[in-house]
Amino acid sequence: MTEKPAQTSVGSTPPELFTWEFATNPYPAYAWLREHAPVHRTKLPSGVEAWLVTRYADAKQALADARLSKNPAHHDEPAHAKGKTGIPGERKAELMTHLLNIDPPDHTRLRRLVAQAFTPRRVAAFAPRVQELADHLIDQFAHKGSADLIHEFAFPLPIYAICDLLGVPREDQDDFRDWAGMMIRHGGGPRGGVARSVKKMRGYLAELIHRKRAALPEEPTPGEDLISGLIRASDDRASDRLSENEAAAMAFILLFAGFETTVNLVGNGTYALLTHPEQRQRLQQSLAVGDTDLLATGVEELLRYDGPVELATWRFATEAVTIGGQRIEVGDPVLVVLAAADRDPGRFNAPDTLDLGRRDNQHLGYGHGIHYCLGAPLARLEGRTALATLLTRLPDLQLAVDSTDLRWRGGLIMRGLRTLPVSFTPTQSW
Ligand code: HEM
Q1: Is residue 163 in a domain?
Q2: Which are the contacts of 253, defined by CB distance < 8 A and separation ≥ 6?
Q3: Does residue 96 belong to any structural domain of this protein?
């Protein structure tokens, strides 16, 4: 509990958003907005104007409001800007059918299908594989005494985990790693190398689904992969049948939604622990005696304190809506700022303090309402395994650079570090 509360008294003019300083530490600006302009209209770097919702109660209401659609077709943008706004889904129609771009009833149907295949049981059975992956990755650098935890650990862990869960054969997983690397390095925009990587990934997934459908045994086998489960769930209900395009879009969104988020949970979470030695020591002591309660509450607190998803994905008003006393017109885009809501003193006691044992921690890091993160059980499993394994195997892990030398990505939706250089006493592989 070493951090001072964020400064809120930065004057009466709105802080500048989307600058380098803001990317490094957006929390003082969010504190100002929460206090002075809780539903704030701003121009985004793409030129699109959108409402930022920063208070917890307003954010929760907005996330559950059916009048705020996820379908970019409801965006009232000027004709000359069509397809140039950077809003995912506006240009690539074939990517539109995934969960984060659709509303009920289509959303209800697709979500039910994937929930049937993506069960807590399937995730729980996956725990030994996640542990094996975490150990294997640490084995690659444990002898060196230093590493970049983003590239050598946080980045490969979720991509291999999701590939395994989906049923992407091991020999193809490095291709996925390269495509995902291109997407994370150059942002989600539909340009150049990113567009090519997205296209390759989708083409590959479509073909994989086609092959798996042709070879699917009549009865499910134990440990069946998720794509097969998805095909089975859709084939079981003739009326609910997933089209191949929907199935490819579903596999794609699982990869996309579950990848950079988890990289950032491990990256931001490790960084927060390394810069809060008291909290880190507390966690290491409890892990040393086999107590995992603090690990469980701690991962939730790391999500609240500096979570991977800074702003929830786009929403568009389908009718005039009032949020926090502010009228929002039809067609206006709304961005719910999860990072600001989760530091709201109106909801959380001492919100700028990291307290791994925090109780009553109903943070919005996984969203809220019908789009609540479908992968939360997997994210929790990966986050807990990654942090516990790092702290246990490299007990004197420390930052190898000054915090001020770290660079944050500065994307619109996600918050995460570009690199996380660390040092530790070299150890042998396990
Ligand atoms: C949705 C956060 C990991 C799959 C969401 C949303 C948030 C979120 C905030 C809601 C977005 C909105 O309402 O606009 C996170 C965080 C993660 C994480 C913080 C890691 C720490 C994962 C993983 C997967 C996944 C590992 C799957 C492999 C999804 C899917 C949705 C979603 C499919 C869309 C659900 C729907 O629209 O019904 N996530 N996520 N997420 N997440 Fe996650």
Answers
A1: yes
A2: 98, 99, 100
A3: yes
Confidence at residue 220, expressed as pLDDT on a 0 to 100 scale: 80
Domain count, the chain: 1
Q: Which residues contact 343 (CB under 8 A, 6 or more apart)?
A: 6, 27, 30, 31, 34, 304, 305, 351, 352
Distances (CA, A) of 224 to 132, 287, 354: 19, 32, 40
Angstrom distance (rounded) from CA 197 to CA 68: 31
Whether ligand 1 lies within 6 angstroms of the CB of 321 is answered as no
Q: Binning pLDDT at 50, 70 and 90, where does residue 77 land?
A: low
111 in contact with ligand 1, CB cutoff 6 A? yes
Instruction: Report the run of H or E that residue 323 belongs to, with start and end.
Output: strand 321-323
257 falls within a domain: yes
Judge if the beta carbon of residue 365 lies within 6 A of ligand 1. yes
How remote is the C-alpha of 59 from its chain's centroid? 17
Strands 49-53 and 333-336, sheet pairing: parallel
| Cβ–ligand 1 contact at 309 (below 6 Å) | yes
Domain contains 30: yes
CA of 100 to the centre of ligand 1 (A): 9
Domain that holds residue 232: 7-423
Tell the residue nearest (CA) to atom 4 of ligand 1. Answer: 375
Q: Residue 307 CA: which ligand 1 atom is closest?
A: 19
Pairing relation of β-strands 146-148 and 421-423?
antiparallel
- CATH code for the domain in which residue 106 is found: 1.10.630.10
How does pLDDT run across 229-242, given as a tens digit for each residue?
888 876 665 555 67
Nearest CA to ligand 1 atom 7: 366
**H-type helices in 289-420, by residue range?**
293-306, 338-341, 376-393
What is the model's pTM?
0.92
Q: Is the C-beta atom of 234 inside 6 A of ligand 1?
A: no
Collapse the DSSP code of 148 into the 3-class scheme (helix H, G, I; strand E, B; otherwise coil) and give the result. strand
How large is the average pLDDT for residues 401-430?
91
CA distances from 69 to 46, 74, 367, 371 (A): 21, 7, 15, 11
| Cα of 195 from ligand 1 centre, angstroms | 22
Count of CB atoms situated within 10 Å of the CB of 258: 22
Which atom of ligand 1 is the closest one to the Cα of 336?
A: 14
Query: 358, 229, 354, 339: which is closest to 280 by C-alpha?
Result: 354
Q: What atom in ligand 1 is closest to the CA of residue 102? A: 37
